[in-house]
Amino acid sequence: MYGIPDRLKALSAAEEQVLLALWDCKPPVSRRDIGARLAQKGWAAATVLNFLYRLEEKGWVICTKEQNHNLYAPTVTRRAYGVYTMRQRLDTVFGGDLAQAVRALVSESGCSQSELEQAIAVLNEKHAEAEEYDLYDPYG
User: Fold this and answer.
1) Is residue 27 within 8 Å of 73, Cβ to Cβ?
2) Segments forming the whole domain that contains residue 42
3) How far is CA 140 from the centre of its chain?
4) DSSP-assigned letters across all residues of 96-109
5) Most buried of 85, 117, 131, 134, CB within 10 angstroms?
6) CA 35 to CA 18: how far, in whole Å?
7) Where are the alpha helices (DSSP H) in 4-112?
8) What is the CATH number of the domain that holds 30?
9) Which residues of 89-100 are buried (b: 16+ CB within 10 A; e: fewer)?
10) CA–CA separation, 138 vs 140, rounded Å?
11) What pLDDT tens digit does each residue of the chain (140 aa) get?
12) Across-strand partners of 44?
């Protein structure tokens, strides 16, 4: 769904934190690398290992052996997961109404002028792509 395989089981908030730490590293990643990122938040090494095991069981990471170390790699990109989670929230909170969600985000989140200009540029680019596609005549 939304670029995430249906076989993957839902993540807890803590599992998501481990996956985010994994994405912050260049895979494949050792437990120590992930643990170093999470240690700043008070995570113990055994806890990180436990959550990596859970993520592997749920299909979010794959584990390979290199000598006597386990190395971990995500099975889904951060971008795909981001789209998936944003789409879920859009559907749940705003009934799938993107315009309503954008209005709420822009009016309530304190976006800077620079952030708004970047967002407008992305929307204009996407709009131009759609117009080009609409004008394309495969038989012409």
Assistant:
1) yes
2) 13-74
3) 40
4) T-HHHHHHHHHHHT
5) 85
6) 9
7) 13-23, 31-39, 45-58, 78-94, 98-108
8) 1.10.10.10
9) ebeeebeeeeee
10) 6
11) 566 888 888 899 999 999 999 999 988 899 999 999 999 999 999 999 999 999 999 999 999 998 888 999 999 999 999 999 999 899 999 999 999 998 888 888 788 889 888 988 988 888 888 766 655 555 55
12) none
Cis amide bond preceding 28, omega within 30: yes
**Among all chains, which residue has been given the structure tokens 């749920």?**
58
- The two tokens of residue 125 are 């680019």
- Structural domains in the chain (count): 1
12 secondary structure, DSSP code? P
Q: Is 138 helix (H, G, I), strand (E, B) or coil?
A: coil
Q: What span, in angstroms and rounded, lies between the C-alpha atoms of 49 and 57?
A: 12
Element (DSSP H or E) covering residue 66:
strand 61-66
What is the rounded CA–CA span in Å between residue 124 and residue 130?
10
Within a domain: 58: yes
Angle at Cα 105 formed by Cα 101 and Cα 107, nearest 5°? 115
Task: Give me the residue label for tokens 């976006």.
Answer: 111
